[in-house]
Amino acid sequence: MSKRITPFASRYCSTLDRLKEAIRRKRPGLLRRGVVLQHDNATPHSANLTQQWLQRYGWEILPHPAHSPDLAPSDFHLFGPLKRHLGGMAFETEDDLISELRNWFDNLDVDFFRVGINSLLSR
């Protein structure tokens, strides 16, 4: 199957360029260890231009099943509250971040995930 070409692919690659620059500034070690990216199967993400960009920089893509909006990270109940919790924090080491994440998960309300799962019914 041939890869699609789309005018939106160049815009997406520009977004990836900005992301790469932000990672270089904020987490330079991450670029050396390798970036793992998850995006869906939208046309700009699977276009030849995008695939070439990803190969050039050696970024790994986590697979995302087609037609699985319930698995899209942006729709998942967890990420909004987690982003708000971590907003403004800075960590000296990856272990500090992991420790904060464990603390956050340990202190979640017992109904947190039940509410998130039930909210999928309304989507």
TrEMBL record:
Gene Ontology terms, MF aspect: nucleic acid binding
InterPro entries reported for this sequence: RNaseH_sf, Transposase-MT_Hybrid
PANTHER family linked to this entry: MARINER MOS1 TRANSPOSASE-LIKE PROTEIN
Full protein name: Histone-lysine N-methyltransferase SETMAR
Species name: Plakobranchus ocellatus
